[in-house]
Design brief:
- Pfam families: CHB_HEX_C_1 (PF13290), Peptidase_M14 (PF00246).
- Belongs to the peptidase M14 family.
- It comes from Asanoa siamensis.
- This is Peptidase M14 domain-containing protein.
- The protein is α+β, with helices and mostly antiparallel strands.
- The chain has five domains: 67 residues, Alpha-Beta Plaits (2-Layer Sandwich), CATH 3.30.70; 94 residues, Immunoglobulin-like, CATH 2.60.40; 319 residues, Aminopeptidase (3-Layer(aba) Sandwich); 106 residues; 93 residues, Immunoglobulin-like, CATH 2.60.40.
- Helix content is 18%, strand content 26%.
- It has twelve helices and 39 strands.
- An eight-stranded mixed β-sheet has the order 14-22-24-23-25-30-26-29, sandwiched between helices. A five-stranded mixed β-sheet has the order 9-10-6-5-13, with no helix packed on it. A four-stranded antiparallel β-sheet has the order 2-3-1-4.
- A hairpin with a 4-residue loop joins strand 11 and strand 12.
- Helix 5 packs across helix 6 and helix 9 crosses helix 12.
- The longest helix has 24 residues.
- The radius of gyration is 30 Å and the shape is globular.
- The N terminus is likely disordered.
Amino acid sequence: MRRRRLRIALLALPAVVASSVLMATPSAGADPAAAPSTPEGARSVRIELSGAAMLEKVNDAGFDIEHGLTRVPNGIEGEAVATDAEIAELKALGVKILADGAGFAWPEVADGGLAGTAARSAVPLTHEETVRVVRADWFTTKGQGFLYVEARTTEGAQADPIVGMQLENDSGRGTPWGFARSMSRFVDSGEYMFHRNLFKLDARPHEIRVTSSTGGVAIGTVSDWLEDAPPPLTENPGYKSNFIDGYKHPQQLYTRAEQIAAQYPDIAEIIYLPNRTNGYQRKAQATIGGTGESAVVVSSAAWGHQGGNDITVEFVDRPGADLPLGVEVTGKAIRVLLAKDAGGALASTAAQVSAALETQSQGLVDRAHPYRTNTGTGVVAATTAPVALTDSLDQKRVGAPEGEVPRGPKTIPVLRIGKHRDMSKPGVLIQAQDHAREWVPATTSLEAAERLVHNYRTDKETKKIVNDTDVFFILSNNPDGANYSFYNFASQRKNMTNHCEDANADPGRRDSWGVDLNRNYRVGSGFDGYDGASTSCTSGNYQGPAELSEPESKNIIWLVEKYQNIKFMMSVHSNGGQLFWQPGAYIADGRITTPRPPLGDEAFYWQSAGRILSQVKNYRETVVTPENVGGSSDVLYSSAGNVREDLYHTYGIYAFGWEVGGSVYNPATGNWQGGSFQPPWEGVPDLVSGHSETMEYANGIMEMFRIAAEWGKDKKDPKSDLVPGSGRFTRPVDVRFETNEPATIYYTTDGSRPTLDSPRYEATEFREPGQVFHVTRTTTFNWFSVDAAGNVENNYDPEKNRKNYRTATITIRP
């Protein structure tokens, strides 16, 4: 019989009607080439936002605080560099500026918790309980043990009085409860999420007990998080790694990709993406006459490097009276002859001069307009000398790499590695540097590519990966913005496309132009009413004028449509230390997320995450904690229009997002120390180091390749059971489904044959295991399961009238 492989059907999305820059703080010891410059008078401040809605509001105001954020009980905390004036503006927007050393911290000592609860009897969770343990994970790092717990109460939304929860744990199997402390209640966008805690322990507990202030109690067994992981490939004898010696700008990345394809033609090639970028280029500009009603903003018709930088503009005061406004052009020199009234006073307004420049400059000027929102009614003053227009791209920032950046549109190469590049093997897309300032993702991805080609002939596990997968590397998906980050403005996030109208099109806004490429996709976008993308062209997460407006995002869609064997994708970002997937966005009012993956896909994501992050930990014990793993809208914030959502829901691709460079535990201080977008390359190897981040996260990418290779070879049917199974019971009974691997279950309870249109076995709640059915009368369950690779249990065909599905009858007879 032919084996049937299915891809689980996905839910359709609901239809919905719908200045200044705060930069990442450079790490101590960072050299100028490896950290953003700090504006004069700026200082580092810790901030607290009430939630995703405020984050979007602050971004719309022109501030850039998208990364390095932490979800805390009262909202979101982050760190920013701001001047006193900017801090005042943030306060006016409702942002809380925290005192030095303030902010959310997990409790270090037991605090007694909720009075009187310790004596409550501990009973197993049943369908009637109001408290559920979502997860209880134990992990160690740098010699210290930690317990992370999430628990949920069905009354958690109650805010007056707020429902509290107490956590206790034992010190090993058979030991008494102790260490009582209160858990923190987390709310996002006004909706209760869960209570959770992370705290240090000297001994691994076996069980925890969670008690609600309303009386519910639950016991959970502690699991190991990232413990006992298999050794990474780097420990294989003779394995070669550590190829990257520093940060790489796009020209270096692309050149190396082409060299690899030339050196290893039997396993590598280059694919050139069809849509060229808009280019590392700008129109030459100048703002003449200050910033008031008399100011004029002038933009060249030609790109700066194609002649715009040669243009000069002079406002001329001629002797005499009753003189008309005129424009003279000699070569690239423009002289605006200002009008004079009957008394000999200058009489040309900024609006009039702007119109004259646009119509009489012989095509040299493309746009001229009053400054920002001014009406241009002020009289223009003469200049003391000609003013040169410039694109400012030759004014390199201090410490920028040597060399010139090619101007004009860029063709992005894709490095494809695989022995069988005929689409017969599962494809894996690694996409780095959507966001320009994120330098480590590019080096991490290149390190993984180097490991594949250098170890192919000498390491049998690498050979399996290359033989059994088809890997596509986009080492920098935003070359224009990345070059701008390296050479001009280190904190550049977006590409360099200017979609701004006159109010935001002057040279003072240049660092705020561009589109956030990871907000420019079609599923769960800002255009559909989802939060986390902005309509403001100067916002750090500007979504663009339309879905897929940018060539860089169009290229991704072209790639996955042309190479339909791509089944896995990792969008590599920094910094923050999160690994996430769908849902990635929600509508703030009611916190309505994009469709959550079926329980089987969710389980596959979690299983894969554990393997990937275990390999990260093996390098220097960096632990991405469970609180930072899951649906990105659950562990971070809403990011409307992100690439992962589009690839998963449109094409069925397992699409991960990765914020590399997360917090590392510092045993000397007892604190978790965060990273930055561009940490010093060597830095402190055990704490903040671009080199260490590159190596440890490359370990994780290599593990993702192994996962894809195994997925492609998976031909085994999943197995599932109803627990307890068929039987006679004298009272109502709770039942649930269990599977031997991540798999989605389709079931019926009305005696009919299950199909892909039947109900799916769902999680009790997000981040929780499968639901429990409380059976009160005799019921027959018919079902089948489908694993992540599309294998169907018992080779059952849900489209044909066969009966080789699973069945169990729960008989209730008092």
